[in-house]
Amino acid sequence: MDSPLAARFDAGNRPSSAQWSYTAALLNRFGDALLAFDKQLVCRIANASALELLGTSADHVTGLHARQVYPPEHVDRVVAQLEAALGGEVSRTRAWRDLPSVGRRCLDARVEPCLDADGRIVGALHSARDVTEVAEAEERARLAMMMFEHTTEGLMVLGADRRVRLVNPAFSALTGYPPGEVLGERPDLLVAGGTQNHNPYLDIWHALEYDGTWQGEVIYRGRDGKLLPTWQTVVRVRDGEGDLEHYLAIFTDLSERQRFEQQLERLAYYDVLTSLPNRALLSDRIAQAISRAERTGGGLALLFVDLDRFKVINDTLGNSQGDRLLRAVSQRLGEAADDGATVSRYGADQFLLLLPELGSPDQAATQAGRLLLALAAPHEAGGQTLTVTASIGIAVFPDDGEDRETLVQHAETAMQAAKRAGRNTFRFFTQDMNQRSAEFLLLENHLRQGLARDEFRLYYQPQIDLKTRKVIGMEALMRWRHPEMGLVPPNRFIPAAEESGLIVPLGRWAMKEACRQNKAWQAAGLLTAPVAVNVSARQFAEQLDEVAAEALAEAGLASEWLELEVTESTLMDDVNEAILTLGKLKRMGVRLAIDDFGTGYSSLSYLKRFPLDKLKVDRSFVIDILDDPDDAAIAGAIVSLAKNLRLTVIAEGVETAQQLDFLEQLGCDEMQGFLVAAPLPAEKVADFLADWHSGKV
Ligand code: C2E
Ligand code: CA
Ligand code: CA
To answer: Is residue 39 part of a domain?
Structure first.
């Protein structure tokens, strides 16, 4: 190797050539970069490390002024330091430097005076140590420490003795233990006893011995006693020689994640509003129940629960009250359900109840009865009291269907049958319901057409005052002349019209037609009495008072000549709305009668709040009034109730003179029925009135 140090060494002080060779060899072996300058800052010596850092050779450095030795970006700084060194100063720096020759390095540098044997300054020495690797390691350690301090994962370092050496702040935050309470302890201290089969650390040590790493769940008990489920990674850390040094345990808090997963599961399987199982979960349960029933030969039942007229309630109350009501209903259904039953929300106002282990169909009937009963109690909603009833359809496995879809579908069909039967009741599925629900649909279409083709007529049944024997009213009863089906009685089409909402336009037509007809009779001098029009619940929600006002105005009829017949159940449907609407009608001067009285469940306290004029004793009590003492008693009670409330009482469906006698004795004011006349087409009314007045009837 060419000895760069030898090249231009000061000849005046030259040591022996051999001596110099040793010195040069030593300097070149030395890892630190060394540069020596004389008092003029001319470079005298540069060792191999220095030349490597400068990216040059000895020939280009020795004999040059310092200004020419260093790269331009460093030269000013170093020259200043060298000059200071000539003045006796020592400077030390540790810094990252970009060097054209070797790139980015961390240098620990020292610039100091060079002294002769007498202590005189004869030059300056620049030495630099490349500490890049140390600096990098330090930086890594610093970053590692930062992570250790700031990570949200709990970290615990154990020594070879398996005792805690070091824990991070997250460890303390998660477990509640400050470092002082765990250092030197075994980690078993943290394990929650009783929650896992045995001490998990037995497994952990075992696995570490063989695999060097372990992962799994460990349930800790925090310092406050609360359980802390954790996900742990434990690794064995060995030093360079392979001797065991440490164990490192890293753990995350699983409780957050478990909560999240539980939440996800809730969203997937439970209805958000009511917290009941949703369709998906119910489907699973039905499938399970079916396969169990198939194995054991047992049965199961599905109850399809549909709230009656809920949409009307929702529209009038508003959505948030409607939601509260749904939650209350769900709760009642849940409470009234048998043990083991699943109550699920199936649609907006529909619920499906699964009875998984059905002994007999009776059990389903009992369950349905209990659900109806639970719903019957009034709700307080938005300062109002209202009753929510439901219609329930029942399908039983395997008789009514052997798979889920069929069972659900048939339960729904049965529910529709319950609606047609007047709501607030339940029905078992029967095969002919399928046919009937198809007929119902067909009927609805026919009704629509009938309305468009003017196929409806009103018949009129006279009402008689028992004292004066005068005609004091005409009840308008609807008839449908269908081109093929002939004369269809109202009981066959009114329920379908109510269900489909067609009753609203149909009812409006009836009101107008009755007013028009009455006006015509009055103009002809035939009649001076009101016409009574039947109205359905649905019409109440659709501005009944405005419809009546319009009908009267169109006909030019005074409002006293219009009477509306409302059934008990219509009024009880929504008591507050009924009171409101009836009040408006009453103020208009329209008369109001309560129809089919005795068949509903109206409470007396409500009855007093309705501004009624008349009470109609239902035909069912009149039929057996002579033979059945119960019916006679009820009829009597109704009459005296009406008297107390100062209402006129009319008995309907009177067919015999004996019935009439009896009713007169009870104190009934008026009557209508076949005894006097069946409902008549309008054109026959004139003849009837003439006959009646002449005493022919
Ligand atoms: P409703 O209001 O109770 O009417 C009395 C029913 O008894 C009428 O049946 C009438 O024809 C019948 N009836 C009257 N006297 C006697 C009698 O002496 N013996 C027997 N066996 N029956 C008698 P109809 O006309 O078949 O009407 C049935 C039901 O249809 C009505 O019961 C009413 O609820 C409903 N309805 C009829 N027309 C309308 C209407 O325009 N609108 C609404 N919403 N419902 C109506
Ligand atoms: Ca009526
Ligand atoms: Ca009636």
So the answer is: yes
Residue 3 lies in a domain: no
Both 315 and 415 in one domain: the answer is yes
423 within 8 A of 308, measured Cβ to Cβ: yes
Q: Are 194 and 202 in contact (CB under 8 A)?
A: no
**191, 226, 253 — which closes off a domain?**
253
526 within 8 A of 517, measured Cβ to Cβ: no
Question: Would strands 244-253 and 342-347 be described as parallel, antiparallel, or unpaired?
Answer: unpaired
- Tens-digit pLDDT profile for residues 101-137: 888 999 999 999 999 989 899 999 999 999 999 899 8
d(CA 429, CA 427): 6
Q: Which atom of ligand 1 is nearest to the CA of 459?
A: 25
Same domain, 287 and 320: yes
| Same-domain pairing of 483 and 630 | yes
Same domain, 505 and 640: yes
pLDDT digits (tens, 9 = 90+) for 10-41: 434 456 678 888 888 888 888 899 999 999 99
Calculate the alpha carbon distances from 128 to 94, 107, 495, 589 in Å. 9, 6, 104, 113
408 and 454 inside one domain: no
208 shares its domain with 309 = no
pLDDT digits (tens, 9 = 90+) for 308-329: 888 777 777 788 888 889 999 9
User: What's the whole-model pTM score?
Assistant: 0.52
- Interatomic CA distance for residues 316 and 407, integer angstroms: 34
Instruction: Give all strands of the β-sheet with 244-253 in edge-to-edge order.
Output: 164-167, 154-159, 244-253, 227-238, 213-221
- Residue ranges near ligand 2 (ion) with Cβ within 5 Å: 534, 565, 595
Closest ligand 1 atom to residue 596 Cα is: 3
Cβ contact 420:364 at 8 Å: no
CATH code, domain carrying 347: 3.30.70.270
Q: How far is CA 287 from CA 75, 264, 337, 342, 426, in A?
A: 85, 22, 20, 13, 24
Helical H runs in 358-429? 361-376, 404-420
Probe residue for ligand 1, chosen from 534, 563, 594 as the CB with the greatest number of ligand atoms within 8 Å: 534
Determine contact, residues 276/304, Cβ cutoff 8 Å. no
| Cα 475 to averaged position of ligand 2 atoms, centre (Å) | 7
Closest ligand 1 atom to 536 CA: 44
The span from the CA of 295 to the CA of 285, in Å, is 15
Coil, strand or helix at 3 = coil
Provide the domain limits for residue 246: 151-253
Flag whether 139 is in a domain. Answer: no
Ligand 1 environment, Cβ below 6 A:
461, 477-478, 489-491, 494, 507, 510, 534-536, 565, 595-596, 619, 652-655, 673-674, 679
Please tell me the total count of domains within the chain: 4
Last residue of a domain, one of 98, 132, 166: 132
| Ligand 2 center–CA 107 separation, angstroms | 108
Give me the CATH number covering residue 476. Answer: 3.20.20.450
Same domain, 499 and 620: yes
Q: Within its chain, how far is the Cα of 307 from the centroid?
A: 20
Instruction: Supply the CATH number for residue 163's domain.
Output: 3.30.450.20
**Omega of the bond leading into 398 within 30 degrees of 0 (cis):** yes
Q: Are residues 177 and 318 in the same domain?
A: no
- Closest C-alpha to 514, from 481, 561, 560, 471: 561
Q: What is the pLDDT of residue 18?
A: 82
The two beta strands, 486-488 and 471-482, are antiparallel
Ligand 1 atom nearest residue 654's Cα: 18
Distance between Cα 619 and ligand 3 center (Å): 6
In a domain, 4, yes or no: no
